[in-house]
Amino acid sequence: MTQMLLYPKLAVNGIKKNRRTYLPYILTCSGMIMMYYIVSFLTLSSFVGEMKGGDYMQLILYFGCGVMVVFSAIFLFYTNSFLIRRRKTEFGLYNILGMDKRNISRILFWETLIIYAVSMAAGISCGILFSKLAELALTRMLGGTASYVFNVELKSIVHALVYYAVIFLLIMINSLRQIHLANPIELMHSESSGEKPPKANYFLAIIGAVLLGIAYYMAVVIKQPVSAIFVFFISVIMVIAATYLLFIAGSVAVCRALQKNKGYYYKTNHFISVSRMAYRMKRNGAGLASICILSTMVLVTLSSTICLYIGEEDMLRQRYPRNIVIDTYTTDEKLTSLTHGAVEKVLDEYGETPENVLQYSYLDISGGFEEDNVILDPDRIDELSNSLDPDIRQLFIVTVDDYNRLMNKNETLSDGEVIVYPTKGDYGYDTITLDEYGTFTVKARAEDFVDNGVDSMQMVPSLFIFVKDEAVVKELYELQLGIYGSAHSYMHDYYGFDLSCDEDRQTDIGNALFDEISKIKEEYPDDWTGVSIDCAAKDRTEFYAMYGGLFFLGILLGAVFIAAAVLIMYYKQVSEGFEDKSRYEILSKVGMTKKEIRQSINSQVLTVFFAPLIASGVHMAFAFGIIARMLSLFGLTDAGLFAIVTLCCFGAFGAMYTAVYFITSRSYFRIVSGKE
Q1: Among 51, 146, 514, 573, which residue has the least CB neighbours within 10 Å?
Q2: Residue 643 near residue 296, CB atoms below 8 Å
Q3: What secondary structure does DSSP assign to 501-513, as a single string?
Q4: 346-385 pLDDT, tens per residue?
Q5: What distances in angstroms separate CA 93 from CA 17, 88, 258, 582, 609, one per listed residue?
Q6: Do the beta carbons of residue 537 and residue 507 sit within 8 Å?
Q7: What is the pTM for the complete model shown?
């Protein structure tokens, strides 16, 4: 019985003796489990699902659960490496004193089990405690009615127990692997391993610089929003690889360059810090690169989701330029008069009068651009799509008469002349040639045009082309009809208007319009080509649910990324503090004062600590354009708003980062000065 209790007792003692490193680890594990439970609880909550837009919100949060589990596995594996490194000397001593590796494995098993049990208990308890608060916040975002019934989601608890049990099991297996592959002498001297002076690998540093330069170039030159999505993920991979190469290999090269600078290097505070960084930069660089990547993830996640949430009302208005829109897929007067008549009938029944009426016709065509030539052939468009930055656009062909009427202009066009208005991009040519039709001369570029709601939904940018008259529109319709066949585009009769009544009544009117037009479709089944009815009030909740879900998930993931970055910073300083303690004791004995030690520490920590923050700021600056273009796919075209939000996020994160610097710097000094 005593022998059975020996290993749990040794495990508990080991955790207590190393509480400086184990306590933050356990708190982080608990925090991640808590976050997972909250997200999973909201995903499975029947109350959230029954709210308007709740199903959209839960779909977004469902993907958040997967992100939480994957990130937890990667991050806990990484941070556990700090713990196992601190314990290797202790395990080596156990081994020398007669305890074989099987016994050490049992200690590790009990340590893992204890940490898992404590983390799960604390994480699930806090998750249950704060889940109701998260539910209320989500209810507020969706504009629902709050429920004060307290629920516990058993499925979320079971999922958390299983997923994190697998993660802790894999972590334990990895720790056992390291212990079993090392001999007792290697374990005893693990604290000083890897301290050989590294050589400056200029080749890897150059590769890192080239990769980073290519990624930055791609982010800057890509103009099309659709291409931005693909290029963004490629650039992210390249930036991550380049960041690690530059912080590991490039930082060593920088240290060597500083050592060659006699005016800088041969100063007390610089001499110690630079020499120490040069000796440890392989391990140090990997940690700094991880902090940089996490910092960038925080900035990207928070700035983009906050910006989407703040700008959701503007995006809703772009998506729905009028409260109610009826888009009939034909300009045949018989059918359009029927839809317009249905609108008048329903509004009369409800006693409402349409306001800000917007009515015009247009033809939409997809085309690929090679300079000023518009390609309509689907096969050639597919070939163009395979290029890095294909210029694919949606063309809206509108008569100049409609343009003048809606924009209060008095433009005239001759044969072969057009006016163009590009969205989400630019058109810088003086002519435009349509396949098999001919070339138009661009007489002018319109400054603006009414929103049609279609452009905001397009994955590709749009180009409005205003032509001389309806005859040109019909010719282009016949042209694309022959090219696309059954996949051809339609002529559209766009009819939208606002209502002064409340949103519930607007929703009722929208439903009544749908029923009335459905009757017309049944009466004329052979003539009907199609119609869409959009009601902003009806879709508002689902629209807000999507962006509210992204915002909510962005806040949670941002908090997790921040916690991860802070923990890596803490472990980095504490572990290096213990390693440097004996070295600074020697320097103190040979005459180095405490003031000089503090100056040396500040120089080292300051030089190393703020490099990731500066690098993440540079990453974000180059990524700004490509992220802004991606946000335009959601309908957010206000680059100024995104710039302000990004700067605010960077300022807030920088303040938090500076606070962590002062805390870790003080902890490092207390360790190396012998006060702890």
Answers
A1: 146
A2: no
A3: S-HHHHHHHHHHH
A4: 889 888 888 888 888 888 888 787 788 888 777 777 666 6
A5: 15, 9, 39, 19, 34
A6: yes
A7: 0.70
